[in-house]
Amino acid sequence: MENKLVVSSSPHLHCGVNTREIMLDVLIALSPAAAASALLFGWRAAAVIIVCVASCMASEYISRIVLKKPQTVGDLSAVVTGVLLAFNLPATIPLWQAAIGGVVAIVVVKQMFGGIGHNFVNPALIGRIVLMASFPEDMNRWAAPLQGSLVVDGLTSATPLESLEQGGELAYSYQQLLVGIRPGCLGETCIIALLLGGLYLVVRRVISPLIPAVFVGTVFILTWLLGENPLVHILSGGLMLGAVFMATDYATSPINPAGKAVFAAGCGLLTVLIRVYGSLPEGVSFAIVIMNVLVPLIERATRPLPFGEERRLPKWLKR
After folding, report:
1. Could you tell me which of 116, 159, 245, 256 has the fewest CB atoms within 10 Å of its CB?
2. Residue 220 pLDDT more than 50?
3. How many domains, in total, are found in the chain?
């Protein structure tokens, strides 16, 4: 009895990589999209990113002091949340509103549920949704890219998904959609930058390609079956940003491969339903948050069984 036994939740095996190193990899993967947003939307994009990161870091630092818990601001998770929140905001948003989004994401969604790893929904997405509900006009004022200082003046333009929802024709080529020459949120426009970041995370084994592949594949198949243009749906909106960087969040996605596939397919299904039949042109944020809530049920239904154990089925399925 000389050795103390430590009782803790899984995982019990350590790969030698800590949270800070993982978050640093994610920040490196986000850097191409951040650079692209600055090139497309000017200094205003950099200002929104800086404000969101500063708000998230300050919220984390102060909340840990108030809650009398060990300081975690150094693990860079708050920085990642700030960048992802900024990527889900338009360049024209007032900076004080962006700061509110950071407070909601960190204090309400993350720290009030116990800190990193204990939140059951993605903090950055909830921050975006709260801002959409609170300031819908500002959250739907889009800046046209490559306009320089005109971004500050609030030059507005319809996004590709909004144009399609209103019955208009797509005003952008596939090449323009790939490089981000279209209105939209800061981090969602340049698909090439997002793919580069996703490839880096896969090579570094930070994320599995299963969730992004199933998510995007589901959207492609369903939009094709419904008579929509699959390529437009994939290259427009926040699908690629959500599939690569949001749906793959460790704390809010399933662990086992079967669960990941079900989760990603559900995200894709809800995204298409909201885009095609809903009143909103974009549904990625809501789809991921809804599936985040269902993760415990998905993991219970898809968990691997120990050898010799039979899966318990509801009585109505046994008949």
Report:
1. 256
2. yes
3. 1
